[in-house]
Amino acid sequence: MSSVAPAWSALSPALLLGLTGLALLLVDTIRPNERSNTSMAVVSALGALASLSVTVWFVIAGTGHADTGGAITLLEGAVKVDTMSLFFTAIFASVTALVVVAAHDYFHDHQRPAAFYSLTLFAATGMALLAVANSLAIVFVALEMVSLPSYALVAFLKKNRGSVEAGLKYFLIGALSSAVFLFGISLVYAATGSLIFGEVAGQIESLDTLSGVAGIGIVMIVGGVAFKTASVPFHFWAPEAYEGAPAPVSAFLSSASKAAGFVVAFRVFTEAFPLGASLAADINWVLAFGVLAAVTMTLGNFAAAVQEEVKRMLAYSSIGHAGYALIGLAALSAGSAGNEAVMGAAMAHLLVYGFMNTGAFLFVAMAERWGIGRTFEDYAGLARRAPVACTAMAVFMFSLAGLPPFAGFFSKYFLFMGAIENGFLWLAGLGAVNSVVSLYYYSRVVRAMFLDDPATPSALDAIDVRPTALYAAVVFAAVATVLLLPGFGPVIEAAEAAAAALF
Amino acid sequence: MVPPEWYLLLASGVFCIGLFGILTRSDALYFLMSVELMMNAANVNFVAFSLYYGDLTGQVFALFVIALAAAEVAIGIGIILVLYRNFGDIDVTVPTEMRW
Amino acid sequence: MVDAFAYVPAVVLLPFFSFLVALGAGKYLPKGGAFGGIAATAGSFLLSLWIATAVAGGRAYNETLYTWAAGDQFELTFGALIDPLSALMLVIVTLVALLVHVFSLGYMNDEGETGLPRYYAGLGLFTASMLGFVVADNLLMAFMFFELVGLCSYLLIGFHFREPGPPSAAKKAFLVTRFGDYFFLVGVVAVFATFGTAAFAGEGSFPALAEAALAGSGDVWTPGGLELQTWLTVVGLLVLGGVVGKSAQFPLHTWLPDAMEGPTPVSALIHAATMVAAGVYLVARMYGFYALTPTTLAVIAFIGGFTALFAATMGVVKDELKQVLAYSTISQYGYMMLALGAGGYVAAVFHLTTHAFFKALLFLGAGSVIIAMHHNEDMWDMGGLKSRMPVTYYTFLAGSLALAGIFPFAGFWSKDEILYEALVHGLNEPLLLGGYVMGLLAVPVTAFYTFRMVFLTFHGEPRTDLAADPEPVRWNVKGPLTVLGSLAVVTGFINMVPVQKVLGLEGIDYLHRWLDNEWGGIEGLSSHHYADLGPYSSGYIAGGEVPTVLVGAAVSLGLALAGLGLAWRLYNVTSPTEHTAKLGGIKDVLYNNYYLDELQVWIAYRTEDIAGGADTFDQGIIDGVVNGVSSVSLLGGSRVRRIQTGLVTQYAAMLTLGLIALLVLLGVNGGWFL
């Protein structure tokens, strides 16, 4: 179809998200005095779904695939649409749709919820742009386009001290990280004289004395990526931001925003700083990612094991999962045929994670909507009052823990397997140990919901409403998590194909 | 023409001053200013090496960065405003309710 | 003619449908969905028999049925592998599951339990996952069903979730077995990484590849240039981790006694045919791999022998009926592991078969007693039930005789063969001989605690009002007991190797011939082939094979009778006491040697001391280690979380430090600063 439609139409998933954001502003402008929560939610959900369907259509039609003429480049090579970008755009659009639907119930009594929807859609646009970025300039602009609405979203509950504190910390760490990231880009520019990935890659090998400058720049870029993916040592914002933010925002950030960080990392480090050339220039970024992956998953899982609040536990678990996905960059070796397998597995893990983690946070959103507490004890006996939602939550928890036969098991399995194939037994082993730890805290949630008795008989009386949209979003995420079982074959194939195009 | 290494040194110096400011100041506005410094350090690099390579990309990108920095400050000021409303202060070390 | 093998998936799916039905519509069905479960397991049982007949007709089946996900280098497939071993196991599992379903009518429905749909759904899924595990044609599929089995046991053990005990027991079972399963998972990944396949049977299966690689033809991957034999041993031990957890072998056996908190029919299913059997079955399934690594075999044998003795001594001091049975299960699976480690593949499968029947029988018998006693399980509150519930008594007695290994009950034949294999192979292998000695020592202990249990429960005078007037049980309890009781008597005759060897009768070792593909099977999966692969040579004592057989059998039977006799002396009295000081009886003082009585009392005391010590060790050390590991992890976690101080300026500082550390690391690595 690329031969028929104009080339810019390859960007339509991102354009659709952006247009929806603008349309939301328009709706809000036309009816400024009304609380148009429902119409905003409907418009944004439709926009996200439209973007999702176009993306899926593109994937099926093979846009940007090697079989149909290869990747589509636009704007003098600064933008590149290929299978990987479509794969990740699908993640972003799905998570966005789930989040806006859930938000409809979450903000049922909020004064002016309209801004939430447009900010979410603009952030999603930024993410879609990140997925197609082929120049460090676009990467930075798109990254800021994701970050700036995110700061506002975290601090969205302006009268809630937790939300404001979270927003502040997220903003400060984010501003610092993006400054570091930008300086890294400037150093790479200084060393190579270009911002386009392909041209940077061409210069890396012939750096000579400038390899130190480029090296420092690349480490700083690793830092920027680590911030977006909530990896150690740039993770400090994550526990607070996820805990303090409105739960739909936490879901959005921990799933979509994290995936956005990874898509950048995958593309930048395969196309701008290819492994062989970087090693030749003495820039061993694989080692940096190896260290980050190990530290990140260990810190995330161990800290999650000792949390008292479910939401904060999920925040740390999200850090732990960033560590797993980093294996996709850490377990690479120059010229190895197994590289695409391990990176593809990391992509598939991010997709599965997108559904199960979003679902888990949306369940927390539902608990917040009911007004029951935040700790594990507060969830005791919940299954008796809300069996469907609790079953969905159990699916998320088991899948996050990587228990077979849930989808989370497959993605983790392929990931660890790929790492071993590439000779990184220690990373896979560490991942397995961490999975054992994670089982402990995930099963605590399930145990509380299904096996424990409520602290007082009246503790669960707060559950007096059935938030339909939240329920729908949670159940849909659970169904998707389950459907990814039989559907895991196509997913891993698409992911490996996407990764293969990068090497 | 000034050798490019000097620009690198200047930029690194400015960057480190900004970083120092972030590490030592607890006032949110100082924090914002320090971040501005760090970003402008990058801009120095972009402009200088744009000249050095005879390529306009760096200069154009520096303009982009300036715009983005302004947007970041706008969001930052907004957050500082609600910070003041909720905590009665703009000291970033005051909100420590969430930890561990 | 319709092909029996076309129905292999149906064997697995029927119980799965009963699970769905009980889950979805159990509320509206009579008996909470019990009949669906009975019909489904009966159907599976009939199909299994048909499949076994087909195997007996000289055929076998090894097909990939469904490709789940195919990646670049590995794929996940579902398939079915039907050979003599899996056909036999299918029959055992479906039969026991069927009887447990019937028995549940009496134990759960008639007792007015609530939540029956949940119960029958759990049973259905449990059976289905075990059957899926049995027919699995590759290690990964086996692993997935292995995990499902674990999950179901969690649901079923924690069935009475409103009481405090069961949920924590369920959690313990889940976590302990899962601990082993992680080694298993790493093992599965290692198998894939090494061989690129996880198929059990056929040309390109991993045991065949390992064999070829060891023989020098074929090339397989090993990490870091490790020697092939060493690496295979490591892989074997990793997979063994899962086996040790599921089959409740030392040191991961602690979950099993606690698991008695589940409903008794579930215990029967777990112990006889499903979860615990899964571990041993897995080793048998991939025996072609294990036979290649002598170190692994020796480890298996030693763990098995040690567990057999260790668990048996603990069974001696337990007061609750089901607790005694729990330790006996651990001990009996120890025997099977001993057999597998000693190269006695057939002996292990034989014991797995006989044990499935007599242990299911004992548990259902115990369930019957528990119904009668209104859910009081303390044996000291029973006594004299013999005349009040004769069907239960005689079937239970048959099971006990089998468990104790008394001629000619089923357990005698299988246990004797295990000890024989361990002896003849162990004469040249010190570790194996150690396993044999421990296995032999466990024989009298087993007989002792078994009959202590029988005498305390059924003999003597009723010690409480409950025991004097037990609640009657119905057909649905007596029926399964009768079937299993007959099987406990006769199953041993399928493999009368000692008789064959001593009398020279050819061809009565049916199980040997069955597993040796005499009727049908898959090349490379025969006991003969395994024996060729194995590292052992046979040695005989007393000058030849026949005397060795006779001496071995006589010694083990003699020891069993001695244990039985001791239990008889100590507990088959009107009012037995826990401390055996009053034993002997005034009438017998003149007849018996006084010092013998003293000795009996002394032995009883000492046995209790040792057993008590083992028990303390179990509770204190093993549990302590498990708890210790978890508390160290949690302590680590609480240290880690302190990094998150809440002060954003400190975050910035740590972030900068982290970045600098990365810069220094890569800089030094890449030599940028030179």
UniProtKB/TrEMBL annotation, chain A:
GO terms for biological process: ATP synthesis coupled electron transport. It is found in: Membrane. Keywords: Membrane, Transmembrane, Transmembrane helix. Residues 133-437 form the NADH:quinone oxidoreductase/Mrp antiporter transmembrane domain. One of its GO terms (cellular component) is membrane. InterPro entries: NADH-Q_OxRdtase_suN/2, ND/Mrp_TM. GO terms for molecular function: NADH dehydrogenase (ubiquinone) activity. The keyword Membrane applies. It is a multi-pass membrane protein. The chain crosses the membrane at residues 6-27, 39-60, 84-102, 114-132, 138-158, 170-197, 209-227, 285-306, 313-334, 346-367, 388-411, 423-442, 469-488. The keyword Cytoplasm does not apply. This is NADH dehydrogenase subunit N. It comes from Halorubrum aquaticum.
From TrEMBL, chain B:
Keywords: Membrane, Transmembrane, Transmembrane helix, Transport. It comes from the Archaea. The keyword Cell membrane does not apply. The chain crosses the membrane at residues 6-23, 30-54, 60-84. Its main location: membrane. GO terms for molecular function: oxidoreductase activity, acting on NAD(P)H. Belongs to the complex I subunit 4L family. It is found in: Membrane. This is NADH dehydrogenase subunit K. It comes from Halorubrum aquaticum. GO terms for cellular component: NADH dehydrogenase complex. GO terms for biological process: ATP synthesis coupled electron transport. It is a multi-pass membrane protein.
UniProtKB/TrEMBL annotation, chain C:
Gene3D superfamilies: 1.20.5.2700. The chain crosses the membrane at residues 6-26, 33-56, 85-107, 119-136, 142-161, 182-201, 228-245, 266-284, 296-317, 324-350, 356-373, 393-413, 433-458, 479-497, 549-571, 651-673. One of its GO terms (biological process) is ATP synthesis coupled electron transport. Residues 68-120 form the NADH-Ubiquinone oxidoreductase (complex I) chain 5 N-terminal domain. GO terms for molecular function: NADH dehydrogenase (ubiquinone) activity; NADH dehydrogenase activity. It is found in: Membrane. Signal peptide: none annotated. Residues 136-426 form the NADH:quinone oxidoreductase/Mrp antiporter transmembrane domain. The keyword Lipoprotein does not apply. Its main location: membrane. It is a multi-pass membrane protein. GO terms for cellular component: membrane. Pfam families: Proton_antipo_M, Proton_antipo_N. InterPro entries: NADHpl_OxRdtase_5_subgr (IPR018393), ND/Mrp_TM (IPR001750), NU5C-like (IPR003945), Proton_antipo_N (IPR001516). Keywords: Membrane, Transmembrane, Transmembrane helix. PANTHER family: NADH-UBIQUINONE OXIDOREDUCTASE CHAIN 5. This is NADH dehydrogenase subunit L. It comes from Halorubrum aquaticum. The lineage of its organism: Archaea, Methanobacteriati, Methanobacteriota, Stenosarchaea group, Halobacteria.
